[in-house]
Amino acid sequence: MLLSCLGVGSLVLPGEPVPPQQPQIFAPGVISTGEYESHPAFTASGDTLCFLKSAPDMSTWTLCFSYRRQGQWTAPVVAPFSGRYMDADPFFTRDGRTLYFMSYRPVQAGDSARRDTDIWRVHRTRTGWGAPSICPPRLIAQQMSITPRLPTRGIVFWLEAAGWAGRLRLLPLRPAGHGLWRRRKPGAGH
User: What stretches of 77-160 show up as alpha helix (H) in DSSP?
Assistant: First the structure.
């Protein structure tokens, strides 16, 4: 997994030196093992990493966690809610207590895996991570939902695609109260 380049979107974790001018392998031998590791998401505090570990043929996608302890990253562990269905594109909220991700998991327990993806979220509790829940129905697209992001001011962004070969479109949403979301009108202010 390549991280750490100076420039737009540079990643500098708290307590880390300014990254070098050239790309660097992130945590070689611990996180970056030469297997298929990608899609890193860090908490704002920089002490928790969630990332995607997949098979070379992309037949499996599993979310893993690593924690920074005494300046070192721990060996990754499979997220307690991942590993059964294909999960990817993790994103932490600013407070680090909620993780959004896309998944093929079924909406109803006992159903088969879905043929398209939806956005899910899981909350961190005092004892670990809770059970994932699908985002409210008003947030779920009729097509594949991928790459959730919550950049600022409660607006949710994610991409919607008509299959992997389809065109992508960015869908900005605003909280509408009571767990519902409303599409943000183009050109609308914050």
Answer: none
